[in-house]
Amino acid sequence: METKPSPGKGRLTCPRRHMPEGWDPPAPAWSARFDRITRALVVAIFTTEGDTRRAQTTRLDGWLAQPDGPVHVERAAYTARSGDRATMTVAYWCDPDRHRAWCERDFDAWWRDPARLREAAAHALEVLTIPPDRLETIFGHAENAGAVGTGQSVYGPVQEHLYWGSMRDRIPAAAQDPLASLYGHNLPQAEPGETRGRRLRVTPPANLCVIRSGQNWAGCDAEELALYDASVRPALHAGMRYLRDHRAETGCLDLRFANEIGRTDEPLARAFGLGIFLSLGHLEAWAAHHPTHLAIFERMVDLATVRGEKLALRLWHEVFVLPGEGQRFEYINCAPNTGLLPFFQASDV
Q1: How far apart are CA 139 and CA 317, in angstroms?
Q2: Handedness of CA 243, 244, 247, 251 (dihedral sign)
């Protein structure tokens, strides 16, 4: 599905409260209108850890191809906090009713089967339901990644780009709502206890912030790839590790840095970080002030300066600020430090 950016200088519909007067971005970027969403975007994140992950992923791939399946799917692999290799599938629906029908066809019966509790594998199901006014995306090239891969129309170049606060300015709901956490600045703590042999459900508070931030180096020539590997990639990995390992300091509840893979597990020239923050403000604070993010930003600017118009690296991100209702976070046999389990009260399903 080819994405065709609209020509001309773009303006989004939400008030631009943080944009400097007379702002002209130093580099172009595009955003999505999300005009093909029926009430809400549904993003389902399926994760399996352990020896049976390949068999489970194959089964899931078959179900995702059924009627009422997702409009767009991406797969990736990463090392989980447990140390096991994990496979993550991220699937997008533009209609919550189609997602519900898909779940009822085969998936929910398999997920709820008591046999899952006796498996050696660990499974996580995180279903995000996001109204269009609580999400945004930005990318520097036409990129069929994430929610844009569902066929949303693309607008730009946009002015809400490359200044601190532009991410918030691209989220329509932020014009009337600070989107703050009920917990303020401090992470809550929960004690999930023994988690093996249990299917646990977490009910998250409103305004959790989820970001997928992606990199695509498939089009880079040897010179650019060498520069990226020597400078940008180490800073990026350091920033992702910091978020993963400093939850209390950053407000990042979970961070998974994953390499994308194809249908037969072959590695692709794409990667992304998936982060869940207590609020949009926590993500903004890290991005604006922390040395690990400033290093990523500065090295990326250096690369862009050296390469100029020859720059082929493609960067994108999408941000979701979750309402309190409609979210589903469930964990089967997962370690106690997985996902949201360390922070919010979990109940057996």
Answers
A1: 7
A2: positive
Q: Which residues are designated catalytic?
A: 317
Position 14 pLDDT exceeds 80? no
Whether 99 has a pLDDT exceeding 90, the answer reads: yes
Is 280 exposed, middle or buried, given 0-12, 13-18 or 19+ CB atoms closer than 10 A? Answer: buried
Nearest Cα to Cα of residue 142 among 132, 134, 127, 152: 152
d(CA 99, CA 41): 10
126 sits in which H/E element: strand 122-130
pLDDT digits (tens, 9 = 90+) for 138-174: 998 767 899 999 999 898 999 999 898 999 999 999 9
pLDDT at 11 (0 to 100): 45
Per-residue burial over 173-193, b if 16 or more Cβ lie within 10 Å, else e, is bbeeeebebeeeeebeeeebe
Q: Which of 126, 318, 321, 287 is nearest to 205 (CA)?
A: 321
CA-to-CA distance for 98 and 312, rounded, in angstroms? 37
**Which of 10-14, 86-90, 125-129 bottoms out in mean pLDDT, i.e. has the lowest?**
10-14
Both tokens assigned to 22 = 């007379």
Cα 99 to chain centroid, rounded: 19
CA–CA dist 250, 248 (Å, integer): 6
The answer to whether 147 touches 92, Cβ cutoff 8 Å, is: yes
Q: Are 82 and 122 in contact (CB under 8 A)?
A: yes
With bands split at pLDDT 50, 70 and 90, how would you rate the model's confidence at 9? very low
Task: With beta carbons less than 8 A apart as the criterion, state whether 83 and 112 touch.
Answer: no
Separation CA 77–CA 69 (nearest Å)? 22
Helix (H, G, I), strand (E, B) or coil at 344: coil
CA distance 316 to 31: 10
The secondary element (H helix, E strand) that includes residue 88 is strand 85-93
Cis status of the peptide bond prior to 204, with omega within 30 of 0: no
